[in-house]
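Table S2 (text version). Query chain:
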Amino acid sequence: MKVVNYEIENQPQELQEKLTKSWSGGIEAIRNTLNENSENENITEWKLFYSLEDSLNTLPHQEHSSFITAFYSNERRTMLKTGDIMPALLLHPDHTKAILYWEKHDGTYAIITLESQINANNKPEWDVSHSWITKQPSST
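Corresponding structure-token output:
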């Protein structure tokens, strides 16, 4: 998995470690959920971003507006609460799917999948396809 982490490099070491541990746990939660749902998605090749701005730099300019709208969706607004850890984003190599996720204050993970579809104007448009809260992977 390729990691693009410009934003956290300037943070204190303790915070970097907390965020990295949380995001790694989220990736495991995503893998477990995909396996439970029998989805054959291999997220190993996806790029991991720690900021919206860094992820936008990899998308075509004409998709920025709809991606930002999907990123800041109603699902995100209702699921992200005070005390939750900063979200991260996994972006598919062909830029047609993304997974926004974060650890919630209670140890569960919020996961939102975004997909790019061709709209009525024959242009790519990003939208939320699924959202759910899953348990933190067990550490046994």
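Notes on Table S2: Residues 13 and 19 are 10 Å apart (CA to CA). The longest strand covers residues 124-134.
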